[in-house]
Write a structure and sequence with these properties.
There is one protein chain. The chain is α+β, with helices and mostly antiparallel strands and about 190 residues long. The protein has a single domain (about 1-185), classed as 4'-phosphopantetheinyl transferase domain (Ribosomal Protein L22, Chain A, Alpha-Beta Complex). It is about 30% helix and about 30% strand. The protein has helices at about 25-30, 35-55, 110-115, 125-140, 145-150, and strands at about 1-10, 65, 70-75, 80-85, 90-95, 100-105, 155-160, 165-170, 175-180.
Length: about 190
């Protein structure tokens, strides 16, 4: 089973969790200037910690590394992907390679539609395709362009409407997907 954990981080007190964050996220958070970006970044890892604690027990501190651009945890059977948009952080966790993206519903520019020859698509369809591309990009971890994505078979991608958001997940093989909303007070 693949799980997507999602959390509204509006009321997240990220500062009280800094001591449990990996060096990877701690260093990234230090570079941000506003609290919303810090909350979004912290929220992603806190969701991963919550999931792993439920599956494997107490986690002192994650040691997240990068394989080129894709974060991973050495000697861990779980793979994960992070995304955030507006007030939501999310984390997809699976035993399969995974990519996740969350996008707040909005209009992409007319120039964007024109650039990619998407005239026949509605505004929602354009954003949904972009959301799917972002999840797929995180799955394959290479420099595929949006144009290339539009012209290939992308394997297993599912898109959900979640409140005012599109939530897409890409996997290297089909799996059962569970979406769990987590209250920020419980992470």
């Amino acid at each position: 089973m693949t799980t997507i954990l999602i959390c509204d981080i509006t009321n997240l007190d990220y500062k009280k969790h800094l001591h449990v964050l990996s060096k990877y996220h701690y260093d990234k958070i230090a570079l941000f200037h506003n609290d919303i970006d810090k909350k979004l970044m912290a929220g992603c890892e806190l969701l991963l910690i919550k999931y792993l604690e439920n599956e494997v027990g107490n986690i002192d501190r994650l040691n997240i590394s990068l394989d080129e651009k894709k974060p991973f945890i050495e000697k861990c059977e779980y793979k994960f992907s992070f995304s955030h948009s507006n007030n939501y952080s999310c984390c997809a966790v699976s035993k399969h390679n995974v990519g996740v993206d969350i996008e707040m519903l909005r209009d992409l520019s007319c120039r964007f539609k024109k650039r990619y020859n998407l005239h026949s698509y509605s505004k929602e369809q354009v954003l949904e395709k972009w959301n799917q591309f972002e999840s797929y990009y995180k799955l394959v971890n290479n420099n595929i362009s949006f144009s290339e994505f539009l012209n290939i078979d992308h394997g297993f991608i599912r898109t959900y409407k979640y409140k005012n958001y599109y939530l897409s997940i890409a996997l290297d093989e089909e799996d059962i997907i569970e979406i769990k909303e987590i209250n920020c007070e419980k992470i």
